[in-house]
């Protein structure tokens, strides 16, 4: 390793410690949304098979969740598989479903889940998911329902527009059935028709890989979320990159239109 690289590593370590100390002094986002973009680009840069990039992305998620717990973030929602992802090559889609399934199975035997009191919830439409994955989702949700210290929400088979449309359909049915009236419909009431009404809106949405859009992620819930974009591909995200996002959030003034 050349001297300049050593200096760079030392500087990064010093900055990481500084950011961590500063973040501890401020208000952390209660709910963090993450768009984990760039697995395939990472794989291409490394000369790897795209599926290996997804495995690296899964490993990175485990690391980032620990970073969140370390600084006091209580809720994380991860964009794991979007409705648009169904358009990908069938072999890749099948691999992703098996990877997600294996990750959920591993969660149920991971002592860190119990130690950290992690509750897992999956949001999305399950109709297009393979049956084995739906069964594993149900088992994981049931197994972790006893915990409440940390909430991990996985958006799988998820699309923000689809969530809103499905919510509208449920509202229309309830109006037609006389369960509610048109005048009963408010923003707060409509929240009851989303995939999970118990979630507070995300304070911050982080997206990797340089793309600067939310790509159909939490469209209703993210109306007032702060956004942070980084050029780094998801598997390459370092702790210092993560801390920069949290520190940036803390420097902003959230007025909510006031």
Considering the chains and any ligands shown, give keywords for the structure.
single chain, 258 residues, alpha/beta, Undecaprenyl pyrophosphate synthetase, 6-stranded parallel sheet, 9 helices, 6 strands, globular
How are the SSEs placed, and which strands pair?
Blueprint: H1 3-25, E1 31-35, H2 39-46, H3 50-71, E2 75-82, H4 90-107, H5 111-116, E3 118-123, H6 131-144, E4 150-158, H7 160-176, H8 187-191, E5 204-207, E6 226-229, H9 239-250
Helix pairs in contact: 1-9, 2-3, 3-4, 4-6
Residues in helix, %:
40-55%
What is the N-to-C order of secondary-structure elements (H for helix, E for strand)? HEHHEHHEHEHHEEH
Work out the helix count.
9
**CATH topology (fold) name of the domain at 29-159 and 201-238:** Undecaprenyl pyrophosphate synthetase
Number of strands: 6
Nearest-integer average pLDDT: 94
**Derived structural class:** alpha/beta
Taking the sheet with the most strands, its summary is: 6 strands, parallel
- CATH H-level name of the domain at 29-159 and 201-238... which superfamily? Decaprenyl diphosphate synthase-like
| Strand order, sheet with most strands | 3-4-2-1-5-6
